Inverse folding.
């Protein structure tokens, strides 16, 4: 078998959406399909949406096949039997998305067994002036009260709206009502799942000429109707200054999100961050990173996947001043971080 690469580069999977735009092209310099592209699935093994590998020695091989070849080397020993637990996307909302909610694992197992629960995190990459996210309720309410508002087309009236700017990060636990507003480009890390219950969609018409389907019974069964106390917006916590500043946004049961920030040009090596070593997914928020072993530069807006064996071996890298990397990996239910 060919040697498992330390770094895996993957081809994005683009999704056209009625609310999508063209910022993946204008803001991130990508060549994307025509139309309103709302999502780029950066790293995915969910359903039929499986990322294809770009590395020459494994060109166009589905990521799932590489994992099957060497699960310990690609993902790490804790994932040998379970597969990649995360899905990473970039979302471009030219118009606002529907108001929606996700279930937890227990509810999904019972009512949507084809998928998992869905905890997710948003990292704002760019935001037009006045752009907003909806996260949580602005008042205490209950099922009967909110159901009545939805039926009166007033479903937005009691939602907590946040003006956002680049660098803002929000954690959405299952049961949290939410919506991405128009003019927001964001990075999303989530459980590998597509369990989404649409609560309210402003009466929009779908591709079939009919109002888009709502999932009210399931949504009202999982919603947390308590007023938000504002803790969905995360603060970054400094972990270490050496060899560069690392900040933690969240390390929860499903995933971890950090920001690696480089104020100056710097050489560094990747080292294991967990015990046992496991995979890591990186998104270049700003700047660029060069891998001399591969003679490849990863620029702003690009994603790369470091295998478990890559962390255990030596990966040399050089960054430009002002480089910022979002690091995403497994949750604390599987590995212990150093």
């Amino acid at each position: 078998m060919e040697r498992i690469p330390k770094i895996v580069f993957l081809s994005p999977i683009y999704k056209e959406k009625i609310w999508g735009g063209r910022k993946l092209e204008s803001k991130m310099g990508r060549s994307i399909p025509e139309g309103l592209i709302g999502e780029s699935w950066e790293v995915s093994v969910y359903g039929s949406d499986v990322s294809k590998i770009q590395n020459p020695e494994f060109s166009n091989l589905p990521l799932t096949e590489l994992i099957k070849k060497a699960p310990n080397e690609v993902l790490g020993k804790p994932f040998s039997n379970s597969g990649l637990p995360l899905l990473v996307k970039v979302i471009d909302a030219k118009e606002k998305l529907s108001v929606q909610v996700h279930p937890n694992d227990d509810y999904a197992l019972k009512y949507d067994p084809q998928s998992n629960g869905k905890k997710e995190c948003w990292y704002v990459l760019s935001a037009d002036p006045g752009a907003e996210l909806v996260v949580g309720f602005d008042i205490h309410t209950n099922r009967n009260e909110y159901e009545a508002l939805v039926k009166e087309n007033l479903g937005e009236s009691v939602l907590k709206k946040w003006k956002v700017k680049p660098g803002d990060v929000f954690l959405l636990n299952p049961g949290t009502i939410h919506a991405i507003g128009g003019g927001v480009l964001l990075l999303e890390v989530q459980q590998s799942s597509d369990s989404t219950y649409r609560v309210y969609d402003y009466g929009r018409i779908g591709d079939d000429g009919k109002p888009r389907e709502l999932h009210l019974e399931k949504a009202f069964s999982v919603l947390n109707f308590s007023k938000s106390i504002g803790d969905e917006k995360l603060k970054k916590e400094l972990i270490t200054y050496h060899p560069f500043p690392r900040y933690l946004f969240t390390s929860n049961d499903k995933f971890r999100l950090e920001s690696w920030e480089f104020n100056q040009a710097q050489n560094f090596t990747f080292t294991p961050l967990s015990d046992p070593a496991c995979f890591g997914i990186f998104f270049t928020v700003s700047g660029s990173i060069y891998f001399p072993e591969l003679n490849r530069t990863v620029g702003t807006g690009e994603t790369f996947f470091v295998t478990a064996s890559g962390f255990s071996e030596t990966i040399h890298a050089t960054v430009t001043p002002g480089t910022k990397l979002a690091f995403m990996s497994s949750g604390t239910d599987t590995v212990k971080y150093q």
About this structure: The mean pLDDT is 95.
